[in-house]
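Proteins fold reproducibly. Take a tokenised chain:

. . .
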Amino acid sequence: MRKVLEPFLHFFTPRHTNNHKARALHFSSLTTYIAVLLVLQIVFSGVAKFRPQILGYASNITVSDLLTDTNKDRAAAGVAPLTLNSELSQAATDKAHDMFTHQYWAHTSPQGRDPWSFIIAAGYHYLFAGENLARDFGDSAGVVSAWMNSPSHRENLLNDKYKDVGFAVVNGTLNGEETTLVVQEFGALPSGAPTVAAPSTPVPAALPVAQTPAPGPEVLPAQTIQPKFDLMTVTKTISMALIIMLVGILVVDSFLVSRRRIVRLSGHNLAHLFLLLAVLVAINVISRGVVL
């Protein structure tokens, strides 16, 4: 039985056969881990490219969840809930498709088309209007939370002048990267005749729409397949599993070295442990999404 366990003990615990330092913590082993992660990343990228139905960019964002989370935050702030509006949702969808078609990430397109033209083109003649954008998020809660954590987007989301809202959640390829674009269009209709007033802040450099530009062609996004596994989630899980394994080995190594009173000239386990814990926390808390 001991012969069977010997390779395991040699790799995970300090022994005379590994110079009293777990083989898993040797420099050559750490180099191997990095090489394996790089190879896996190349393999995963290849699978995502040729088998997108298995592994690729995936998100779990829905309009119903976005509306619910938005109205929860408005209720918490004492603001009336927004009503989902089909015209604003159409404007949001057209805006998302336009960003994919012309490959830009901005409130105003390279052709100079601002958000208000999409709203007017969809038939919504607003009194007040605003727009929030998000990309690269994995779930609805993350999107709304990021908007709430940004002062300008929070101002839009909690603006009591808005009565209606529209959403679009569209997958596609933007500047060579697969992503999910989320567009949130706010609006309020005038009580009298349909007139167009200046849109509400905080979208920068926004001007009232004097004329209604013709909407651009509706183009389906390049990637509409929902893969079984999310590439970023798989990569993150493997990285975290490796770091957790190394942290565990360091803890065991430190305990055994102290208990056996082994004197080593190398290996500052405490410093390595704090470093790995910091990396683990960073991997776990860093959000992949951005808002605009």
Observations:
- The beta strands are 55-56, 83-84, 128-135, 164-174, 177-188, 229-230, 290-291.
- The first helix runs from residue 2 to 12.
- The radius of gyration is 26 Å.
